[in-house]
Design brief:
The complex is a heterodimer of chains A (114) and B (196). By secondary structure, chain A is of the alpha/beta class. Helix content of chain A is 40%, strand content 34%. Chain A has a six-stranded mixed β-sheet with strand order 1-2-3-4-5-6. The longest helix of chain A has 17 residues. Chain B has 196 residues and is an alpha+beta fold. Chain B is built from six helices and six strands; from the N terminus they run ββαααββαααββ. Classes of the chains: A alpha/beta (114), B alpha+beta (196). At the A-B interface, helix 2, helix 3 and helix 4 of A face helix 2, helix 3, helix 5 and helix 6 of B.
């Protein structure tokens, strides 16, 4: 499953239980983000054990996008599964600032910045 | 009379390195204009790089500043586009001032009169509540309801980027029509001195 535009790519790979986001996500609101949130929630439904969220190539995320990731994380918390592992990059400054907030919503979330 | 909230002072750009970008009201739909927010924000962030030269350690600091400017300018422009008053003829502008030890942004846009008080209340929450709690509360609230606007832009600027925010509300008459305006000021301290 893949959503691809000239600005960003969001891909769900069932075999590796990984949703990866790359590029710049600056969509204008929840309506535009709905297909991405849907993909995340579907992946979480299929992967009952663990799900990886690979953000290492996500250069930019606006606050509406932060809201989408938070919504997804709260959904996982309510379902009590799967284990969510977020991979980020130290080279992309916003990730070090904003991703740790996801752990406040879901303390079991693993966050690794490489 | 103008009403001020938070950390607001007017600044004259004279003698300070600055850029101003204006967005005139247009018939082009918001969706098509949306990409100009990101383009303008990235332009400001790239432009700024010229004023920071240094060693390897400073390269990281430059990347931090660039990322912060790009995020903040984009959020300010997104807000201005979403919340300005489409029924009046008033251009949105973003002014960006570079000082030796800080950056300031001024984004000015119209606002529908009926939204002014709601915005005042939102600002009062931002200025008086524990931000870290407010942030989580806002996320939990957004998860429960399908609100079109996340209300996270200003909170993340303060919480994640350490920005200082202020607002000036004003009104003016143009061709016998009252236009309500809001100017949002964001100040960001620089971790290294700029070469200006």
């Amino acid at each position: 499953m893949e959503i691809k535009t000239e600005d960003y790519t969001v891909r769900y790979d069932e075999a590796t239980a990984t949703v990866s986001c790359a590029g710049s996500l600056r969509l204008s609101g929840m309506e535009e983000y709905a297909p991405i949130l849907h993909m995340l929630n579907e992946a979480a439904e299929q992967q009952t054990d663990a799900l990886n969220l690979d953000l290492r190539n996500l250069e930019f995320l606006n606050s509406s996008g932060i809201n989408v990731l938070s919504k997804f994380v709260i959904n996982v918390r309510q379902r009590k599964s799967p284990q969510v592992n977020v991979q980020g990059s130290k080279k992309i400054p916003w990730q070090g600032k904003s991703l740790k907030n996801l752990q406040r919503l879901l303390p079991t979330l693993e966050l690794s910045l490489e | 009379m103008a009403q001020i909230f938070g950390d607001y002072v007017d600044e004259q750009p004279t003698n300070v390195e600055h850029l101003i970008i204006g967005f005139s009201p247009t018939s082009i739909p918001l969706k098509q204009r949306w990409r100009n927010n990101g383009l303008s924000a990235d332009f400001l962030a790239d432009y700024l790089q010229t004023f920071f030269v240094g060693d390897d350690e400073e390269i990281n600091i430059r990347a931090e500043i660039k990322s912060a400017v790009s995020y903040i300018a984009n959020e300010l422009l997104e807000n201005a586009m979403k919340f300005s008053d489409d029924s009046v003829d008033y251009a949105t502008s973003i002014a960006f001032h570079l000082h030796k030890d800080c950056l300031t942004f001024y984004v000015r846009n119209s606002i529908p009169k009926q939204n002014v008080l709601k915005f005042h209340r939102f600002i009062e929450d931002l200025l008086t509540q524990d931000l870290s709690d407010l942030y989580i509360k806002q996320l939990e609230k957004n998860a429960m309801q399908d609100s079109a606007h996340s209300g996270l832009g200003f909170i993340t600027m303060i919480q994640d980027y350490g920005a200082l925010l202020g607002w000036k509300f004003d009104s003016l008459m143009k061709e016998e029509q009252e236009i309500n305006t809001v100017t949002t000021r964001v100040k960001l301290e620089l971790p290294v001195k700029a070469n200006v």
